[in-house]
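Q: Give me a protein?
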Amino acid sequence: MRIEYVKQEDQLSLKRSGLLGTSEQIETVHQIINEVKLEGDRALFRFTETFDGVQLNQLLVSEEERLNAYNAVDEEVLIAIKQAIHQIRKYHELQKITSWFQAETNGTIVGQQVTPLDSVGIYVPGGKAAYPTSVLMNVIPAQVAGVKHISITSPPNKEGYIPPGVLVAANELGIEKIYKTGGAQAIAALAYGTETIEPVDKITGPGNQFVALAKQAVFGDVAIDMIAGPSEICVLADQTANPSYVAADLLSQAEHDEQASAILVTNSNELAEAVKTEVDRQLVNLPKQDIANAAIQSFGVIYVTPTIEVAIHAVNQLAPEHLEIMTNEPMELLGKIKHAGAIFIGPYSSEPVGDYFAGPSHVLPTNGTARFSSPLSVDDFVKKSSVIAYSKEALKENGKSITALARLEGLEAHARAIDIRLEDLK
């Protein structure tokens, strides 16, 4: 990892390759979406054969496939999935918000009605890898919010199956509609529907660049969670941090893909040098050494600052997806962090704790968007309606102010809609 020295006035940002895709990729995604809209299931079967290398005769995962998945999952994994479900559900139950109403002395009632979305589609990456925690982290907040209809899409492997861990996670949550389709075509199916797949109101879940481009393309016809980029980790540390812990956590994100970002911000030159050495040492025995090394070489950096205050300023500029604070008194710094997707406090709060088990959803804002957006939560699966019940007394009291504002904006019909009632109330 390279080491850079930062001053207070330096402007930092995450080095990132283009997320929006090339014009050819965008054109391909739009073509796929249009073909799914026109041909439905037939297009999904064709694209699955083209991109996933497998011919399917049905999209819906069968009951037999879901139950057989349990035979392919170790008991230890099943226990871990059940424990994670408990932890994640317990956390998100605390996020629930309720409708509220307030009555005024003049008889007016104002408030907010909170209702869950009718339907949600969850995209779970697949193919070469299995991500059962993507099921848990997307489905559980939706269930806690009260969403009744939840479906999952995921690309099949070369044998035409979805990984057993994904099926077990979905089954433990009671999800019955699991479809074997991935990529941009799956996003199109969730957005517009096919003969087999019903359209949904919102699509969430991570995916590759084509999935991200497809979500961007269908946004407006349906809601989406976010346009997620490659994973990011930033460690804020002082001289008390354990270099081996810091290095291990940086590599935990670097192994995601070649574009993952791994950053250390510290006021200790000694720690910077120790972590640099430790990263090189740990890389040697990492199974995904090639991927992690590429990420470290391209998007790994150690920023050394003159003070911890400048380090905090640097972190807020970066607005990372994951932020670990490994300092002597980490809780004292928490209130100074303005921009981060998830914050991990202390040496034992390693980022994988949040990825898998602690409770908060691991679907987080990336690419610096933590400056203005939040992790996936129960709030993402509800909508809020304003409620206004005006009384006669309130209209008599405020009617002239309402008409004055309407006429100020040149909207005479607005004003007359109030005037006609005021006349009746004289």
